[in-house]
Design brief:
11% of the residues lie in helices and 52% in strands. By secondary structure, it is mainly beta. Strands 1, 2, 3, 4, 5, 6, 7, 8, 9, 10, 11, 12 and 13 form a 13-stranded antiparallel β-sheet that branches. Helix 1 runs antiparallel to helix 2. The two termini are 21 Å apart.
Length: 249
């Protein structure tokens, strides 16, 4: 979903150290203020879940979950609307299998928070969906992390170190892609080999454009079973007292 075809490597020649620092400083400022700038809105989150027992990308579809995602006063709320095309009202936390939340600011904010003490290093130039990007690697130590891997059915909650990449727009210095890979998962923990990629794109809400999640991919392994979630976000609009979403699928 968020494959190589969407991003193309550019010249490896790095900008000078002053430009590297300025681009990163601007990206950090935007990221830390991102949630405060967002209006109250609702959108549709569609999750397509797959599994593979072969280990050779032989993905088999499991289900399609459609949720109404409300963002109100800087908090996310997920309400399952449909499951495999039929009306459903399962709480988000009770969905069997892998699920996710926090894509509307908490993932980004955690990486850039001063308390996290993230280490950043300039890596490369890329073109992502037609925009030139600076790519930085980053790393967060376990002692500063608030990234959780939860297994609700077994009441497990693991906090890990993690690393990944951020893709920063060369012109506006805003983050358009984040990848994340947890480090140091104990061998006894039931979930292994977790990775995620989150893409942002501009969406109009009311009279303004906001940089909001576009696509999200989550991968993990449970024993010999590989699991993949492909998530799409659309139908963004202002949250009002009588907001509702109808589905024509």
């Amino acid at each position: 979903m968020l494959g190589v075809s969407a991003a193309r490597a550019q010249s490896p020649d790095p900008p000078d150290s002053l430009e590297q620092k300025q681009v990163l400083a601007d990206a950090i400022e935007h990221a830390l203020n991102h949630e405060e700038d967002l209006p109250n809105f609702i959108c549709t989150q569609t999750t397509r879940r797959f599994e593979d027992f072969t280990g050779k990308n032989g993905w088999r579809p499991i289900d399609i979950i459609v949720e109404r995602l409300s963002y109100f006063e800087h908090r996310e709320d997920y309400k399952v609307i449909e499951l495999n095309g039929l009306p459903a009202s399962i709480p988000h936390e009770q969905l069997n299998g892998a699920s996710s939340s926090g894509e509307f600011g908490s993932v980004m904010k955690s990486i850039f928070s001063p308390e996290t003490e993230t280490e950043f290093y300039w890596q490369n130039r890329f073109t992502l969906r037609g925009r030139k990007m600076h790519v930085y690697s980053y790393r967060v130590q376990a002692s500063k992390s608030n990234y959780h891997i939860k297994v609700f059915t077994r009441k497990l909650d693991l906090v890990t170190a993690y690393h990944g990449l951020i893709f920063v727009d060369e012109r506006k210095h805003m983050v358009h892609r984040i990848t994340l890979h947890p480090d140091g998962i104990p061998p006894s923990f039931p979930i292994q080999d977790v990775s995620l990629a989150l893409d942002y794109e501009y969406n109009r809400i009311g009279d303004a454009d906001y940089l909001l999640p576009l696509q999200f991919e989550l991968r993990s392994r449970e024993g010999r079973l590989l699991v993949k979630n492909d998530v799409d976000y659309d139908n963004y609009r202002k949250f009002t007292a009588d907001s509702s979403i109808t589905f024509g699928r």
